[in-house]
Design a protein that fits this description.
about 230 residues; mainly alpha; 11 helices; 4 strands
Length: about 230
């Protein structure tokens, strides 16, 4: 992540896009029927998922405790949701206990352009963490966030506060909808896709909001969990 980016360079990163392809918030808010059905699907899907996946949760918890007996099972972090509202996201802990403290020393090794940090061989990731990240199992506790209404099953990746601090006005369009457990970015290459491309995918998703698109993304996500597509 480029922690020393200045405001002027932020605007230069996506020239001509701010005026040529912006989304009106009213367009999203007026999709009443879509939002009602989407929330209904979120409640049913997350409830069923939490019940059916509970045996898997138990297995992951046992393996995590075997590797790091004193480490917590879950990891929580403040993320940014729709309209820049903050919420606490839940995931299976895939990194060592002091991962956040070690991040500052690793920022120079960031392997992705833009307001995200990604490192393929991140030394903070545990052995079981590598597996659950590769298969996206670490993301499954977010079903609780979906049930609570913080997130949706499908939507843009929920960003960190430090990432949003580097967003341009154009980038912030991805915050016009609730973030999702999965989305167009996740099924389009994930970590092999750069930040600017991720923003474009999210904006494309928002411009074409529909239940059919959400269902297609959910099915693609299931396939990717069986056959990973570049997650790390």
């Amino acid at each position: 992540m480029r922690g020393n980016i200045q405001s002027s360079s932020k605007l230069e990163r996506v020239p001509n896009k701010i005026t040529s392809s912006t989304i009106s918030p009213d367009v999203v808010e007026k999709k009443y029927f879509y939002r009602f059905i989407k929330r209904l699907v979120d409640i049913i899907g997350s409830s069923v998922g939490l019940i059916l996946l509970s045996p898997l949760f138990l297995i992951v918890a046992i393996l995590m405790k075997k590797e790091e007996p004193k480490g917590p099972i879950f990891f929580s972090q403040i993320r940014v949701s729709k309209n820049e509202k903050q919420f606490k996201i839940y995931k299976f802990r895939s990194m060592c206990i002091d991962a956040e403290e070690k991040l500052a020393d690793l920022l120079k090794h960031n392997e992705i352009e833009g307001a995200m940090f990604k490192m393929k061989d991140d030394p903070r990731v545990t052995k079981i963490g590598k597996f659950i990240r590769k298969t996206s199992i670490d993301e499954l506790p977010q079903l609780w966030n979906v049930l609570k209404g913080d997130m949706s099953l499908v939507g843009p990746r929920p960003p960190l506060l430090r990432e949003v601090a580097e967003y341009t006005t154009y980038d912030k369009q991805r915050l016009l909808v609730k973030p999702g457990c999965t989305g167009l970015w996740q099924v389009s290459g994930r970590n092999e896709v750069g930040f600017d491309e991720m923003v474009e995918l999210d904006i494309r998703y928002i411009k074409t909001l529909s239940i059919s698109n959400d269902i297609k993304i959910i099915f693609k996500t299931i396939i990717i969990m069986i056959k990973p597509n570049g997650a790390y």
